[in-house]
Amino acid sequence: MKEFEYLKPDSIKETISILSQFGEKAQILNGGTDLIVEMRDKIIQPEYVVDIKAIPQLNRITYNKQDGLNIGATVTLNEISDSKVVQRNYPILAEACKTVGSYQVRNRATLVGNICNASPAADTAPPLLVLEAKVNIIGPIGEKIVPINEFFTGVKKNILKKGEIVTSVTVPPIKDEWTGVYLKQGRRKDVDLATVGVAVVCIRDEIRIALGAVAPTPVRAFKTEKLLKGKTIDESLLEKAGKSALTEVSPISDVRSSQEYREEIIKVLVRRAILQAKGGHIL
């Protein structure tokens, strides 16, 4: 591992200043579960490592009925999955957080780090997509709020520019009664990256669907949602939904799975997730 200078700002303003000054020479240290591995393997070799864990306002979970849920950048996945507020109001997110890595990893890894790493297989991304979360960003020229479906730009790429950091993720309130489920297929039952991930949220006659690990970025399946909207769910429609979802993604063969296997699993998990979110009842 190449030598680097360790910096520990105690404010967002100081962090922005450091990132603006050093640009690509600096890397944010949050949970560190991805950064440390990439530094060890010499995938990246920053000259400055900027530890943001000492910034108080980044380590908060807040919720109210008007604005919804706000999760700070340094809140860990275990803190989210253990939060009664998240379990009660956004159970799909709490459950998805439990599927990331091992318990020890989740004690360090953060939701914001998971999305900023921008892996196509990020387990928190599909639930955030169907919950229509927003990413709160601060940089040298001010603050901006970006819908999660506009945040990912490619494999391990996002829209953040020089000097910008994600301070939190906001999940808006859902006014009506709803149900949701996140299903994940990996090579092993636990502690594995997703081969395919599918999130589904049902709100009245609306069904939202998002998929992970089957395209360069996590994908919201808008065409399939339109196919399902307002219709009675039966076996024929579930089969059509699985086939439709397949046309909205671009699965590949890699070390974890073949393209053909992913294509079959997409159809299976889309059907299963819709069925589970609907309470297992179809006509």
Could you characterize what this model shows?
There is one protein chain. The chain is 32% helix and 24% strand. The protein is built from 11 helices and 14 strands. The protein has helices at 12-22, 35-40, 77-82, 84-89, 91-98, 103-106, 111-116, 125-130, 222-228, 235-246, 259-277, and strands at 5-7, 26-29, 48-51, 61-64, 68-72, 134-139, 142-147, 152-154, 157-158, 165-171, 178-185, 196-203, 206-212, 219-220. The mean pLDDT is 94.
Please state roughly what percent of the residues sit in beta strands, choosing from under 5%, 5-15%, 15-25%, 25-35%, 35-45% or over 45%: 15-25%
Give the integer mean of the pLDDT values: 94
| Rg from Cα | 19 Å
List the strand order in the largest sheet.
4-5-10-6-7
Describe the global form.
globular
Unreliable segments of 5+ consecutive residues: none
- CATH fold type of the largest domain: Uridine Diphospho-n-acetylenolpyruvylglucosamine Reductase, domain 3
Order of helices and strands: EHEHEEEHHHHHHEEEEEEEEEHHH
